[in-house]
Amino acid sequence: MSSTFTPLRAVILTFDQIDLIDFAGPYETIYQARDLATGNKLFRIEIAGPGLTAADNAATMSTYQGLTFKQHISYSQVLDELADIDLLVVSGANWATTEKLSQWEEFPVRRIIKEFAALPSRDAADGRPPRVLLSICSASFFLAVAGVLANRRVTTHHLIIKELEDLCAKLYGAGSTEVVRKKFVDVGALENGIRVVASGGLTSGFDASLYAIELITNVKEAERVSGILDYRWVRSEGLI
């Protein structure tokens, strides 16, 4: 195996009361991805949250279900290093938490999404794949308030499709955003080449993460990972 291989950088944005499967499902999926040429792990995965400082290098967060986990980097570090991130994953939460955070104009995750979506285009000559912005479950609401979903189609947990339709209509105008019930949706490429992918609810995060792997490598690698997970990935259940 090549000793010079440099893994791609994946950052998962977390916050207090995220949903466990919205966080752990994508983590496990992208953890299993391999570089096609060397067999090395494709991603270096980092968990980002609000509480990490130089004086507190073991800040913790809790999921809605009560599981406590450690953060690796802070939101401020993510903002400083956005250009180095290849895959940005945004976790979802229960509806009460999602509604509250999507209304909070100073929510750092909103700013991170907005600035990531506005990065300059990558130089194709550097050999790195296009960046991917991956929204899990209700995190599509955070994409909406960050201005990413105008004139696009998207999905979210099927129980809150109407709420996302209403939010997008308020933000962008009636009929601007099409919200569908799918395992995942390829929202499309932004002007700078960043590819946006959104998942449906909960376990649909596996499907969307597999599709993100396909975008970054190819469909065979995504299928290999689904086999490792022993998860039946039906690609046609997404909207591509």
UniProtKB/TrEMBL annotation:
<dbReference type="InterPro" id="IPR052158">
    <property type="entry name" value="INH-QAR"/>
</dbReference>
<dbReference type="Pfam" id="PF01965">
    <property type="entry name" value="DJ-1_PfpI"/>
</dbReference>
<dbReference type="InterPro" id="IPR029062">
    <property type="entry name" value="Class_I_gatase-like"/>
</dbReference>
<dbReference type="InterPro" id="IPR002818">
    <property type="entry name" value="DJ-1/PfpI"/>
</dbReference>
<feature type="domain" description="DJ-1/PfpI">
    <location>
        <begin position="9"/>
        <end position="180"/>
    </location>
</feature>
<protein>
    <submittedName>
        <fullName>Isonitrile hydratase</fullName>
    </submittedName>
</protein>
